C-alpha cells in the first residue's frame, strides 16, 4: 500500500507540474492578448472564411474566441452574436464542429508540442481539419436538405462578472478542478491496472487503434484523451514519452487523433445544448478522425526517419521506435 501511494503521488506530481507549468503562463499571455483586442482582429480575418462552410461572417468572432480561450468562451460570444442572425440547425452544427476541433489552441497545442509533435502540425490538423470537416458537412447537409430548420437554443450562458479579480478567481477555480480530475483519473488508472481491467480495455480497443497507427503503449492514454480531454491524455503522454516508454510514431498518431477527436463526452454535450446535431458533432467527427488519421499515418509510415524528425516530431522525446519498459 505504501508503494502504491508513493508511486501514485509521484505520478500526480509529475503530470500536474507538467500541465500547470504549460497552462499558467499561456493563460496569462492569452488574457493579455484579449485585452489588446486580439480576438477581434482574428475574427475579422476568419470572417470571410466562414462563407466557405456556409456560415455568416459574424461567426468568425465566435470561432476566434473559441480558438484563443475555450468552448465556454465561444458559447458566450455565440449567444450575443446570434441574436442578430437566424441560423439553422445545420449551421450551428457546422460551427460547433469548428469549435470542437479548434479550441484552447494556445494551451492544447503547447501540450502537444511538449509531447513531441511539432506546433505547425497540430495547428494545421486542428484548424485545417475543422475547416475540412465543416466544408464536407455543409455540402452534405445542403445536398440532402438536412437540418435546415431554425435552431432553438436550449441554454443561455450567464454573463461573467467583469474585472481582473473575477477573472483570476475563475482561472484558479478552473485549475483546482483540473487538479481534482488529475488525482481521480490517475488513481482510477492505477486501480484499473492492478485489477487487470486496463489490459482488457487495451486488448479490446487495440485493433481499432492499430488501424490509425497507435501502438499498445499509447492505447490507454489515447482512450483517456478521447473520453476526458487532450489536456489529461496529453499530460500523461508527456510523462510516458519523456520516460522513453512511448515511441514518437505512436505519440504522433495518438496526438493527431486527439487533435481531431477528444473529450467526446463533455465537449459534445456542451455544443448540443446550443442546438447542434449529433450527426455532425459526434458521429461525423468520430468517423472523420479515425479515417483521416488512419490514412495519414499509413502515408507517413513510408517516410524516412529524417523526414519525421525534420517536419513532424521535435526533440522533446527521443526514440522513434518503441522503447522497452523496465
Automatic annotation (TrEMBL):
Keywords: Membrane, Transmembrane, Transmembrane helix
Keyword Membrane: yes
Protein name in UniProt: Nucleoside transporter/FeoB GTPase Gate domain-containing protein
Entry's transmembrane regions: 12-30, 36-54, 61-80, 86-102, 123-144, 164-187, 218-238, 250-276, 282-300
Domain of life: Bacteria
Keyword Ribonucleoprotein: no
Amino acid at each position: 500500500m505504501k508503494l502504491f501511494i508513493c508511486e501514485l503521488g509521484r505520478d500526480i506530481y509529475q503530470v500536474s507540474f507538467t500541465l500547470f507549468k504549460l497552462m499558467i503562463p499561456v493563460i496569462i499571455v492569452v488574457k493579455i492578448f484579449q485585452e489588446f483586442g486580439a480576438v477581434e482582429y482574428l475574427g475579422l480575418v476568419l470572417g470571410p472564411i466562414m462563407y466557405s462552410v456556409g456560415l455568416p461572417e459574424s461567426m468568425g468572432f465566435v470561432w476566434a474566441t473559441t480558438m484563443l480561450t475555450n468552448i465556454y468562451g465561444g458559447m458566450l460570444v455565440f449567444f450575443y452574436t446570434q441574436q442578430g442572425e437566424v441560423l439553422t440547425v445545420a449551421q450551428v452544427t457546422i460551427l460547433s464542429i469548428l469549435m470542437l476541433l479548434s479550441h484552447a489552441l494556445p494551451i492544447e497545442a503547447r501540450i502537444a508540442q511538449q509531447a513531441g509533435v511539432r506546433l505547425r502540425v497540430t495547428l494545421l490538423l486542428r484548424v485545417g481539419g475543422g475547416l475540412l470537416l465543416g466544408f464536407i458537412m455543409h455540402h452534405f447537409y445542403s445536398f440532402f436538405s438536412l437540418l435546415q430548420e431554425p435552431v432553438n437554443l436550449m441554454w443561455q450562458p450567464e454573463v461573467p462578472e467583469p474585472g481582473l479579480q473575477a477573472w483570476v478567481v475563475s482561472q484558479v477555480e478552473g485549475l483546482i478542478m483540473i487538479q481534482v480530475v488529475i488525482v481521480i483519473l490517475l488513481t482510477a488508472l492505477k486501480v484499473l491496472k492492478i485489477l487487470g481491467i486496463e489490459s482488457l480495455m487495451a486488448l479490446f480497443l487495440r485493433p481499432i487503434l492499430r488501424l490509425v497507427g497507435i501502438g499498445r503503449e499509447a492505447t490507454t492514454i489515447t482512450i483517456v484523451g478521447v473520453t476526458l480531454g487532450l489536456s489529461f491524455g496529453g499530460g500523461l503522454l508527456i510523462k510516458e514519452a519523456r520516460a522513453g516508454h512511448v515511441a514518437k510514431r505512436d505519440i504522433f498518431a495518438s496526438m493527431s487523433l486527439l487533435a481531431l477527436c477528444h473529450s467526446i463526452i463533455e465537449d459534445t454535450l456542451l455544443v448540443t445544448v446550443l442546438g447542434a446535431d449529433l450527426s455532425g458533432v459526434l458521429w461525423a467527427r468520430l468517423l472523420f478522425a479515425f479515417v483521416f488519421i488512419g490514412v495519414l499515418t499509413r502515408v507517413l509510415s513510408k517516410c524516412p526517419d529524417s523526414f519525421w524528425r525534420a517536419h513532424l516530431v521535435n526533440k522533446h522525446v527521443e526514440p522513434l521506435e518503441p522503447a522497452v519498459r523496465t
